[in-house]
Amino acid sequence: MTGGFTVAPSFALQIHKMGSFRRPRPRFMSSPVLSDLPRFQAARQALQLSSNSAWNSVQTAVINVFKGGGLQSNELYTLNENIRRLLKSELGSFITDYFQNQLLVKGLLFIEEKVKLCEGKYSEDRIDVLSEIWDHYFTETLPTLQAIFYPVQGQELTIRQIALLGFRDLVLLKVKLEEILPLVRTNLPASIVQMLLILQSVHEPTGPSEGYLQLEGLVKQVVSPYLGLCEDHSFSGSTCLLGKTCTSYRS
């Protein structure tokens, strides 16, 4: 709330007439009396500054993690406390969305750049780099993100699921792995198979997306026999039209 606080003359007159009949009430309610206004505004401004400081520390830590850095001693405790403070503020309901649509996208750009550096190299080299990137993401980055956002609970998708879906869509599906896999089938690192199976285990709550079905096509190349989501499906935008023979899908 940034504008000044005004009281209509008729409402102010009613307050004056009420006098001692006005019930006592706690300070800093949504409609403070004029005598409370300076303290109300000061407290609100202090809360906003505290929220900004807390959120800036979280953003800085998350981006540092994506760049390959770690957390300092006792930093995780401070970040968890900042997250808890933010959850109680006006920003609380936006934390998951901001992580998914801003922080995660920005962080994964650093990983995507590493993948792009391998374009034009031999297929084996590109697979090896992707394998190393996944290993670090799965064993270092992902657990750290989960630890930072541990206080965020009860969302439709967990921080872990959001981070895995982001890796799938913003990193893996841009590698054109479907062209590389047939060339390296005999020398495929185990971590690539692990990556595909773990990413396949994450389902969007809205149902199978185009990205999920693209991933399923990659899994079919490394797992045999393979029972997929459906034997026949087609796309209409990002909607999957399921064929007659499908396995059960659980979100």
TrEMBL record:
Signal sequence residues: none
GO biological process: TORC2 signaling
Superkingdom to which the source organism belongs: Eukaryota
GO cellular component, one term: TORC2 complex
Pfam families for the chain: HbrB
UniProt xrefs under InterPro entries: Bit61/PRR5
PANTHER family: PROLINE-RICH PROTEIN 5-LIKE (PTHR32428:SF3), TARGET OF RAPAMYCIN COMPLEX 2 SUBUNIT BIT61-RELATED (PTHR32428)
Stated family: Belongs to the PROTOR family.
This protein's name: PRR5L protein
Organism field: Chionis minor (Black-faced sheathbill)
Lineage: Eukaryota, Metazoa, Chordata, Craniata, Vertebrata
